[in-house]
Amino acid sequence: MTPERYEQIRAIFHEVAELNPSDQDEALQRLCAGEESLRFEVEELLREDFETLQTPGFLQSTFESPPERIGDFQIVGVLGSGGMGVVYRAEQQHPRRLVALKVVSMGFGSEVSARRLAREAELLARLHHPGIAQIFDAGSVEAEGVTRPFFAMELVDGEPITEFAQRHELSVTQRLRLIIELCSAVQHAHEQGVLHRDLKPSNVFVTKDGRIKVLDFGVGRLVEPGTSEFTLQTQTGQLVGTIAYMSPEQATGDPRAVDERSDVYALGVIAYELLTGELPIDVRGKMLHEAARLVREVEPTSLRTLSHTMSADIDTIVRTALAKEKDRRYASAAELGADIERHLNSKPILARPPSTWDQLVKFSRRNRALVSSVAIVFVVLVAALAVTGVLLDRAVAARAAADAERAEAQEILSILTEAMAAANPVENTEDDYTVRALLDDIAASLGTERELRPSAEATVRRVLGDAYIGLGRYEEALVAFERTQELLHVVNGPDDPATLEAETQVAAALLDLGRYDEGHAMLVGLVERSERVVGAEAPQTLDRMHFLGNAAYRIGDFAQARDCFEQVLEARRRNDAYESEENLATIASLALTLQSLGDMEASRHLTEESVALHERQFGAEHPYTLTARSNYGLVLTRMNQPEDAERVLREVLAIRRQNLEPNHPEIGVSLSLLAGALALEERYDEAIEAASEGFAILDGALGREHRYTQTTASRLVTYCEKVGRSEEAAAWRAMAPNSNQ
Amino acid sequence: MNERRSESPGESHSDTAAVYEELRALAGAIFQNQHANHTLQPTALVHEAYLKLANKHDFVDREHFLATAARAMRQVLINHANAARTHKRGGDYARVTLTGAAQSAAGLDGADAIDLADALAELERLNERQSRIVECRFLAGMTVEETARALDVSARTVQLDWRMARAWLKQRLHTGANE
Asked: Lowest CB count within 10 Å: A185, A397, A441, A647, which one?
């Protein structure tokens, strides 16, 4: 830039800077006639200027001497300054008392009329609660040509709650007691119709005698212009400092969406920080829009991951307060406080562990990745060979029974081959009823017409179980696997490799059914025995460790999940099995775990690697590859790239529709994921359509109670509300009682 | 500095020199993070220097002194930036930052002394008066009125130029240099 050009810009700036926004626009039009780049440069400067006026700080010399007096108040010192403005220690003349005087930074365009200030101050003055710093007075002061509101409030001698807790090394129980007290103060204000909107540790003080004092109650409301998206813009500067405590709906910038539950969210953040020393969503050093996105999308790490002694109840309580969707949070501060109280009194809490979509899709199913009917072909072949092998071995060992057993083996083989043909989606266009009926028949005939030896029956049951899994019939699969385990336990003993394998299948089926706690408990013991029996780096042990990671993920212990998956990956790398089929699933799982831990970049990287490996090994349309691609779509959704996500998810959906029976749950999952991407693009009508279809499929295949079904219904609630289809929203909510606490 | 004190007080050149020496002696703390617990900031520094020097020199007036001090402060800033640049070329690049308190007080997070010195130099090339105003307002903490008197322009001009310069610097520091 040349000095001449700068001078040109300067002349225009001087002329327009003091105009109000609409006149400014007109003047710019006139002064920059036809010179778009000139206008652009002036506008950029005006924007920066505007922002700095809202939130002074940049190049602000903090040594500027404070005014001697403001209104009725004599300034005696400076207490602090921040995004919202400066706080002075001041002495009021009538009545004579020391107060904290806060002068709020605002700019033109957002001035508050004196009458409104007075009205609001009167309202705020009605908040009488020992836990709320009393507002005495409000007014306005003119400084540097800008009118700024000020508030006189009770001077609080204390320190922020986090610092207090740290300095006094408070126990968890003492910290929880502070939160309960805080909840009660916030509840009082809510009952008077006043939201705080900016709860954070620097606004929550603890006095010397250990009592809570909430500062600045209602100030947010007071300085907020009455309308619209202006809010986000005017508060840009302070937003960065506050966004960690801001609810997703506030981070979206929609002031109409803000209600009591937004304060409940902030209480959750404060509790999280107070208990773990960490922020639930780490927004430090992030750009504003990025920080806002993280708040909207990233699930906080389980408190138990950060602090192993933390109780599951507290984890559930805090994370309920931190739910992304308002409906899933506590409805009031009082309810939050009451649940903490229940926990402290060793009574059952009301909150239920979060079951969000996030926890779902990561493993879009069981990660050994028996994903579709196509997989049955593979499994059945392998299993059938095993059957034959087992029976032939035995025939050699016991010649007497050889002929009978060989005949049996042949019978089984032919039955299974039949099933295989029926289940093969590539060659068979019949609906899944045929296949299922066939499997049901075989299952029913075992133990009635067909009398097999226990070991043979175990093998067949297992094959059936695998086939059911392929069809998404997890309940039947679980029965089959449990029977297998039972039989093998009797025949071979508990520590036999075959028994361990059967147990693994049971655990995996439990995970498929959403019975994660049972599955997790089972796998912990199983991995330990497996290490002992077949060795720590044996492929079977690594498979089980993978399942354990899977289960840990689903119960929300992402750190354990990550540790499991990483251990498996390292062992497989050492054993030259990094590109194996199993390992592809582990890579995909680790990618999703990293996502939940908030490491989006690493996750995306791994997911891309996973898709590439799958495509190379299986081809682009293989069910395993589809799962990987589906996960990639999810990563893109969560990285806020909805167009790319939509494309990927639509491709997967199209292939699944082509290859699977029309009501396969995988199609339901695809539709639900697609709805998520569409909603991100704000194409709510299409999202509702996709999610509705997904819901019907999942409801039919997995049942109303299944989390996938529930999560899809709760999506529908959200989307219908977004477009004002409130009756439909209510209907979906009724379908999804489990998704609302 | 002690020798300089005896040099013809009241004369502009030596005013600047004396103030500069005093500031330089104090300034070390600002640019070293290991002294972060000293919450010194440029403005406080200037005022501290003023208190030390005021009764030893016959400055025309407070504004005059402050404007002089601000210039000196700027020189300190430039020197440190240059030193840091040399360091950088040597491959041992330690980012020279203002102390934590000074930095956040000035809203300069993410920017460092080099960036600020460079931006100020560029501003000086584009519009010298605006760079003077920044020195007075930011580095010396002078009010709009004080700045207006020191630079002999109207308060309104100072106010508008200050707003523009501040916006320009902010833009430049936050987006990085455009070349």
From this structure: A397
At A84, is the secondary structure helix, strand, or coil?
Answer: coil
Inter-chain contact A63–B169, Cβ cutoff 8 Å? no
pLDDT of A378: 36
pLDDT tens digits for range A449-461: 656 667 667 777 8
Residues 130-169 of B with CB under 8 A from A: 130, 134, 137-141, 143-144, 157, 159-161, 163-164, 166-169
What residue of B is the nearest CA neighbor of A285? B110
3-class SS at A34? coil
Helices and strands per DSSP (H, E), number in chain A: 33, 9
| Helix (H/G/I), strand (E/B), else coil: A83 | coil
> Looking at the annotation, which residues of A are catalytic?
198
Q: Backbone phi, then psi, for B109, in 5-degree steps?
A: -50, 135
What type of residue sits at position A606? L
Q: Locate A500 and state its tokens.
A: 């361990």
The owner of tokens 């709320």 is A132
H/E segment holding residue A521: helix A516-534
Whether A706 contacts A728, CB under 8 Å = no
Whether the Cβ atoms of residue A685 and residue A704 lie closer than 8 Å to each other? no
Domain with B149, as residue range(s), is 2-175
What pLDDT, in 10s, does the model give residues A472-486?
Answer: 678 888 998 999 899
Secondary structure element (H or E) that encloses residue A159, with its range: strand A158-160
**What angle do helix axes A623-638 and A642-659 make, rounded to 10 degrees?**
160
Count of domains in chain B? 1
Question: Residue B60 and residue A434: Cα distance in Å, rounded?
Answer: 103
Is the separation of the CB atoms in A138 and A150 below 8 Å?
A: yes
Radius of gyration of chain B (CA): 16
Which residues of chain B neighbour A60 with C-beta distances below 8 Å?
105-107
Q: Amino acid identity of A446?
A: L
Q: What is the pLDDT of residue A524?
A: 94
Closest partner residue to A57 among B107, B143, B160, by Cβ? B107
Q: Write out the DSSP string of A726-738.
A: HHHHHHHHHH-GG
ipTM, interface predicted TM-score of the complex: 0.72
Tokens of A259: 């209600």
In this structure, the number of other CB atoms found within 10 A of the CB of residue A210 comes to 14
Query: How far is A702 from A621, CA to CA, in rounded Å?
Result: 24
Q: Is the dihedral of CA A706, A708, A714, A716 positive or negative?
A: negative
